[in-house]
Amino acid sequence: MSNNGKLDFLISPEKYFPPDVKRGSLLNNEAFILAVERYLDALSESQYWPSSRIEEFQTLRLRKFTGLIEKKSQFWSQYFHRYGFYPEKAALEDLRNLPVLNRKMLLELGDKTYIRNDSMNLPTFSYYSSGTTGVSLKHFYSEREILINYGVFLFRHPALEKFSIGKLLSRKSFVVLGMPGFKHVFEKDFFYKNFPFIRSQDLDNSDLRKEIYASIRGAAPAFLVGYGSLLAKLAEWIIEDNVQLPIFAVRTTSEPISTTERETIRQITDGPVINMLSGNGVGYIGFECQNNQGCFHINSETNIMEIVNDDRVLPEDGDEGELVITSFAYTLNPVVRYAHNDVGRIFSNSCKCGRTLPLFKFHGRRGYEIVLPSGRKVRMMYLHRLHSNVLMGDARLGRLAKQFQIIQNRIDNLLLLIVPRQKISEAEEMKIRLAITELFNGEKINIEMRCVDVIPNGRGHKPSFFVPLSEFQKRKL
Ligand SMILES: [Zn+2]
After folding, report:
1. φ and ψ at 273, to 5 degrees?
2. How many CB atoms lie within 10 A of CB 239?
3. Nearest to 11 by CA among 49, 80, 59
4. Distance 298 CA to ligand 1 centre (A)
5. Is the CA virtual torsion 71, 75, 78, 84 positive or negative?
6. Coiled-coil regions in this chain (predicted)?
7. Beta pairing partners, 124
8. In terms of DSSP bridges, do strands 413-420 and 321-327 run parallel, antiparallel, or are they unpaired?
9. Distance 357 CA to ligand 1 centre (A)
10. Centroid of ligand 1 to alpha carbon of 337 (angstroms)
11. Which residues contact 138 (CB under 8 A, 6 or more apart)?
């Protein structure tokens, strides 16, 4: 492809995919595979473009995308004009005229934000996500649009650049534990086997493990995907059972994993352990940099990310704020300045890997915080640090327990559930209490510790290491 050809591909990828892309028709579909490979090829270059060129390109996509939804929808056309946003001459900064939308606002706006499908965008499909708030929100897509995006950005990762994605899409390669979001999109065509409802403790059952091992061998070489904690537990068992499995790559989803868990997972594959940020309704936002663990590059070719605090856009290297996303991918359910519910920051310095796509860091969900009696909040990132460095990471304490869960069940009470590996001594208990109390800066909160056999999965069958007070009250646990 010529340079102009690549640029056109990146601006209008939909022009280059076959018209009849739909779920159930993708396996071994040559036209689809060819388009995916060409798109990935163009992306492997654009990730090194100078930022001025990426911004120029984003401006073109922004104008095209907002122009299209302005034309198709009375709601969006009025919305843009009310806030002085004019698609045909829009600059990237003009996006800031528009309000930041959150889940609650989208729920209030209701169906009018969806755009009527046309023949290009058939068939459509929708699903509901519950989110951390428990209120379900409808996501409405053209199958074609979502498949073009998932089919490509799921594989947009440095560690996968040297592999043939075409081969991967010619057979059922995925073995999946839990129910990550891409199940809605890829299950029919590419899942060899899914174990949707298993919990960590189910893996103690050797028959189930045999079934999983057989699936991995059947899918060989398998792309293993699943909730972080499930994969970490499975990896422990694979090592314990001393089996060799043809695992080509591992991708953890839905929850952060500790360094110890990551190291365990690394031992079961010669291939990459892949970490990406994706969001309900937004798709793949960014991928972890291999030279900069814990930092992610934005998929700027399809998203614009801003960091916003109290309606103010924060500069690069500034304070932490909420991740706000505008996506160019979905014209039926437009994502225009959507507050994605993650907290983080963008860095301005260039990355040592040479990629020019901006680098960002994020920490879990807003609302996932311990509320102290004074009203002060202990944010998710501190809880993560506690979890990965002290509870699971610290060599001594990490050995004590298979799993921890912290539940805030009253404003002045935390319940700590532990699935122990061995009896916990008083000195060790003190150490755990101290590590948690340190977060409270002198405020008084009671910590109740309880050893249990099993920690039940939370909403959406996902295991969670922390249950905030709001969720505890809502679910009447
Ligand atoms: Zn990098």
Report:
1. -105, 115
2. 12
3. 59
4. 10
5. negative
6. none
7. 142
8. unpaired
9. 8
10. 25
11. 126, 127, 128
- What are the distances in angstroms from CA 159 to CA 84, 129, 249, 291, 368? 43, 30, 9, 11, 31
Short-list 21, 106, 66, CA closest to 326: 66
Going from the Cα of 82 to the center of ligand 1, the distance in angstroms, rounded, reads 39
Q: How many CB atoms lie within 10 A of CB 394?
A: 16
Cα 341 to ligand 1 centroid, rounded to whole Å? 24
In DSSP notation, 250-270 reads EEEESS---HHHHHHHHTT-S
Structure tokens at 308: 């916003």
Residue among 420, 419, 429, 414 nearest 383 (CA): 414
The residue that leads in pLDDT, 191 or 162, is 191
pTM, two decimal places: 0.79
For residue 367, the model assigns a pLDDT of 62
Dist. CA 471 → ligand 1 center (Å): 36
C-beta of residue 174 within 8 angstroms of C-beta of residue 186: yes
Ordered structural domains, the chain, with CATH: 3-153+277-365 (3.40.50.12780), 158-271 (3.40.50), 370-474 (3.30.300)
- How many Å lie between the centroid of ligand 1 and the Cα of residue 159? 12
Query: Is the CB of residue 118 less than 8 Å from the CB of residue 71?
Result: no
Question: How much distance in Å is there from the Cα of 353 to the middle of ligand 1?
Answer: 4
Return the exposure string of 325-335: e unless at least 16 CB atoms fall within 10 Å of the residue's CB, then b: bbbbbbbbbbb
Instruction: For residue 50, give the amino acid letter.
Output: P
* Alpha carbon of 291 to ligand 1 centroid (Å): 6
Residue 287 CA to ligand 1 center (angstroms) comes to 9
Angstrom distance (rounded) from CA 4 to CA 204: 55
Q: How far is the CA of 373 from the centre of ligand 1 (A)?
A: 41
**37 alpha carbon to ligand 1 midpoint, in Å?**
22
Task: State the distance from the centre of ligand 1 to the C-alpha of 355, rounded, in angstroms.
Answer: 5
Q: What is 180-244 written as a DSSP string?
A: -TTHHHHHHHHEEEEETT--GGGGG-HHHHHHHHHHHHHTSSEEEEEEHHHHHHHHHHHHHHT--
Render pLDDT for 422-464 as a digit per residue (tens, 0 to 9).
888 888 888 888 888 888 878 889 999 999 988 876 654 555 6
Q: What tens digit of pLDDT does each residue of 436-445 get?
A: 888 887 888 9
Q: Are 307 and 313 in contact (CB under 8 A)?
A: yes
How many A from CA of 290 to the centre of ligand 1?
Answer: 7
Paired tokens of 356: 């020019």
Q: Measure the CA–CA gap between 398 and 390, rounded to whole angstroms.
A: 7
- Residue 236 reports pLDDT greater than 70: yes
